[in-house]
Amino acid sequence: MMAKLTTFEAGYCTHLACMAQKGAGWNICKFPARTWLIEVGSKRWLWDTGYADYFYQSTQTGIFKFYRKLTPVYLQQQESMKMQFLALGIDLASIDAIILSHFHGDHIAGLRDFPKSKFICSGEGWQKMRLLRGFSALRHGFVPNLIPPDFEQRLTFVESFAQSALPQQLWPFTDGYELPQSHQQVFIVPLPGHASGHIGAFVQTDQGWTLLASDAAWTPANYQQLKSPSRLAHLVMENPRAYYQTLRNLQLLSRQSQVNICLSHEGYI
Fold first, then answer.
1. I need a surface site. Which of 61, 193, 256, 263 has the fewest CB within 10 A?
2. Which domains are delineated in the chain?
C-alpha cells in the first residue's frame, strides 16, 4: 500500500482575482485554505492547519487587524481541522506531526488545537520568523500569537532528515528530504520564493505521485502558462526571483510527467 492523501478545506479568504493572476479581473475571489492528511501505515501527518478560531482572536486588535482587512477570512466553527477530525472520529492525538509549509497565518492558525503532535518545518524558515514582531511580522504574514508556547520543544527541522535522490519522473526536482517512517513515499522539497523556508512534498499514492506545492502558485495558470501574479503580490513575497524560478520548475514538472500538483489556495478564478 502506498501513502493515502485526504484533502480538507479549513475556511477561506477573499481577494482580488488579479492579485493571484495578472489580468484575471477585479472580481473578488474565494481562496480556500487547504490542508492534507498524509497516512502511511499507522503514521499520520497533517500538512498545514488552515484557519482556526485562534486567527480571529489574534487579529482583533493592534497592527494585526490589517491582516484581516487585507484578506477577509471566513470560517465556520465546524470547518477547523480540529472539528473536522472529531466529526470523522479521528483522534487528534493520532496526528504524529504537523508539517508546516511556511509560517503565514492561514497555514499555522490551528497549531494550538494539537497539543500532543510534533511539528516539522524548515529550519531556515523558523530562524527567520521566530523573533519577528509588530510590523515586521505583519510584513511576513506571521502572527506570533498563533505559535504554541512549547513549539520549539516539539519541533524538528526538515534539514535534519536524510537526503535522497528523487525518481527521474520528478525532474527537475532531483533531491528531497525523506520524511522519517514514510517508507520513501513522502519527500519534502524546498520551493523557494513565496516565503522564508517555503516547502512542498512529493507523496506517492496508489494513483501516482502528488506534489503538495503549497503557495508556490495560486492558480494552475501561474505555472502552466507562466501567468504571473500582480506585481503588488511581490510585496508579500520573500524572494520574487526565486518564486519565478520555482514556477518554471513546476512548469517543467507538469509538462514532462503525470504528477498531480496540488495548490493550497487554488482560487475560483
1. 61
2. 4-262 (3.60.15.10)
Q: How far apart are CA 152 and CA 45, in angstroms?
A: 18
* Structure confidence by residue, pLDDT tens digits, 27-66: 788 899 999 999 999 999 999 999 999 999 999 989 999 9
β-strand partners of 4: 39
For 128, list phi and psi in degrees, rounded to 5.
Answer: -80, -25
**Could you tell me how many helices (H) and strands (E) the chain has, helices first?**
9, 13
The answer to whether the beta carbons of residues 8 and 82 sit under 8 Å apart is no
In angstroms, rounded to a whole number, what is the distance separating the alpha carbons of residues 131 and 144?
A: 9
Burial of 9 (0-12, 13-18, 19+ CB in 10 A): middle
Distance (Å) of CA 168 to CA 171, 173, 256: 6, 8, 11
Centre a 10 Å sphere on the Cβ of residue 237 and count the other Cβ atoms it contains.
17
pLDDT band at 214 (very low <50, low <70, confident <90, very high): very high
Lookup: cell for 96:
504524529
Helix locations, 92-239, DSSP H: 105-108, 123-129, 134-139, 220-224
Over the stretch 234-251, which tens digit does the pLDDT of each residue have?
777 889 999 999 999 999
State the pLDDT confidence band at 207, using cuts at 50, 70 and 90.
very high
**Would you mind telling me the total number of residues written for the chain in this entry?**
269
Which cell numbers hold the place of 36?
492534507
Q: Whole-angstrom Cα distance, residue 173 to residue 164?
A: 11
- Which helix (DSSP H) or strand (DSSP E) does residue 229 occupy? none
Going by pLDDT thresholds of 50, 70 and 90, the confidence category of residue 268 is low
Query: How far, in Å, are 32, 88, 135, 216, 242 from residue 171 at the CA level?
Result: 28, 37, 39, 17, 18
Strand partners, 201: 188, 212
